[in-house]
Amino acid sequence: MTAKHGHLNSLDSIRGIAALVVIFSHVFLAYYPEIHSGAEPAYSDLALSVFHTPFTFFYRGQFAVLLFFILSGYVLTLGCVRKAFSNPDYIAIAASKRYLRLGIPTAASVLICYVVVASGLVPVIDDGITPKLMDMPAQDLRLTSAVASAPYKSMLFGDQTFNYVLWTIKIEFYGSLLIFATFALVGRNRALHMAVCGALFLYLQSRAIYVNMYSYFFLGALLARIDFSSLQARAHNPAAIVALLVAGCYLGGYHESSAAYLWLEPLSASLGQWATQGNIQVVYNGMGAALVIVAVLLAKSDGMLNRCLNTKPLLMLGKLSFSVYLLHPIVLSSLGKSVYIEMGRTGWSALVCLAAVIGATSLLSVFFYRYVDRASIRWSDSFGRALFSSSPQAGESGQTGRGQVALQPS
Q1: Predicted TM-score (pTM) above 0.90
Q2: CA distance 267 to 104
Q3: Vertex 158, ends 81 and 109: CA angle to 5°?
Q4: Separation CA 403–CA 243 (nearest Å)
Q5: What are 62-71's pLDDT values in tens digits?
């Protein structure tokens, strides 16, 4: 395995781990909202105590989503660097296929959610309050709404009627187009491209939440133009890589109300003066995600970090990451809610629910990946090549190195 492919495999595994983080986030939010916000009164003193530790990165869904966005910017730009200079049609083909590549799995997830709800597989809690996220999707969904949401409303407008994670797909789609457009305009000049991506990253960081999330695509693009192999050869330092990973995970768990981050208040105040509309939590979580990715890129391909990330289970999880991300909400609202109804809001119930949702989602994702996700790669490739009358070698293969192009989403 080449060094470049080894690192891309590792980044694929990071994407898979991030998908698991999202599941942890949503299950814990349903059972113990205080573990996310620190709000009292709390259902669990233990959950509230965890909130105030520096080890909350493993359930910070926003941290995981920003990892997705940076990885998309990185992988899409790397594909342009490797192929666009030799093939003048590459960017046009890659951009034209993007809607189908993301839209087919997205549409399938919407229709699956509708079928599950219409079949009565989402139980109803008649007595008491339904936990957050388990109350979605609604019980009275109509087929006409699904028919509208599946082909365009989810992709273009981030419609969450059927699947609440689809707000990210809209950002993924438009962010991808921004990456292609920027590379087409200035990508031939590496220094100029890096300067433009850096400037756009800083500018968008100061914008309001959701707008500032587009900045992380440009951060990923910036990282793709850095020669990490040369940096690694000149100054490889395992201790520094560990420090980057630790700092990245620490910042990935940032919340302004957590006691573990109170020492950052002066810096947060300064950042708030610079970016009055900016969201400080997104800034810290995004910086944490970037540090994790940089640590992986700086690590030797045959070193311990990349050997761990290149194990078969993690590589498989990376392949399934998009499928896991799209399917877990409906599994939580059906199977997860059934566990909650049977066992109540207890610690054991939360653990059983978490295990059930991860297990069932993983199993369903194998079939979804095989029959929907991979099909979307083939069909979008064919569409792009047909649109530009190009040979198969000219199009984006749907994978760069071996990775799917992120929340993948890519």
Answers
A1: yes
A2: 43
A3: 90
A4: 26
A5: 999 999 999 9
